[in-house]
């Protein structure tokens, strides 16, 4: 019999309710194949293999939290005492991560309504800004003066949001943003079910974001990829942006190609 992807195997064998949840559990580091810790959802599992889930998976309010959790680790960012904006907050996965890591206050911004987790909604360190379009944010909307913006938005390019948030934060600011190729590439380069699979398109999309940031006077200090895919299997990327005057390095084409290759190797 043929081998199967670990995330698919877990769903078929009742170890997870969906592939998305399976991916989150795997990336939590508690899934083992024949006694060896599984490193990625795409790991191949033989029919006779013994797959175990040891312990509890993450208890964040959403699996999306794993994206920012990885980004802060990989980029080496300490957010303790920081005032932040969570742009595209949704259920609050990113807000949850920020608070657990010691953020002083988070503005949870979303165009939607009623999505933010109840626990976060009632946390005094959170200002809930529902029915709010991040494109039009002004300094007076966030009077505590945020110096960090984290972003996970859908159905819009992040280039539409970066300028307003950058203007609010100024030279003291920083972005940690998800790059979703399916919302950046243009319809002609997006496949069935809204999935972008071509590594060349991924690299091109990232390069466009890096170039846009440069035109704003900002630099892509670091780049990585999301530890989990989007709902339809889209590979997504993580970028750390700083004002050019504060950046110590800028992501180049070679680094983009390297990260894209790493992402495909880990998640396909």
Automatic annotation (TrEMBL):
<dbReference type="InterPro" id="IPR029063">
    <property type="entry name" value="SAM-dependent_MTases_sf"/>
</dbReference>
<dbReference type="InterPro" id="IPR004538">
    <property type="entry name" value="Hemolysin_A/TlyA"/>
</dbReference>
<dbReference type="Pfam" id="PF01479">
    <property type="entry name" value="S4"/>
</dbReference>
<dbReference type="GO" id="GO:0003723">
    <property type="term" value="F:RNA binding"/>
</dbReference>
<dbReference type="InterPro" id="IPR002877">
    <property type="entry name" value="RNA_MeTrfase_FtsJ_dom"/>
</dbReference>
<dbReference type="InterPro" id="IPR036986">
    <property type="entry name" value="S4_RNA-bd_sf"/>
</dbReference>
<protein>
    <submittedName>
        <fullName>TlyA family RNA methyltransferase</fullName>
    </submittedName>
</protein>
<comment type="similarity">
    <text>Belongs to the TlyA family.</text>
</comment>
<dbReference type="InterPro" id="IPR002942">
    <property type="entry name" value="S4_RNA-bd"/>
</dbReference>
<dbReference type="GO" id="GO:0032259">
    <property type="term" value="P:methylation"/>
</dbReference>
<dbReference type="InterPro" id="IPR047048">
    <property type="entry name" value="TlyA"/>
</dbReference>
<dbReference type="GO" id="GO:0008168">
    <property type="term" value="F:methyltransferase activity"/>
</dbReference>
<keyword id="KW-0489">Methyltransferase</keyword>
<feature type="domain" description="RNA-binding S4">
    <location>
        <begin position="4"/>
        <end position="67"/>
    </location>
</feature>
<keyword id="KW-0808">Transferase</keyword>
<keyword id="KW-0694">RNA-binding</keyword>
<dbReference type="Pfam" id="PF01728">
    <property type="entry name" value="FtsJ"/>
</dbReference>
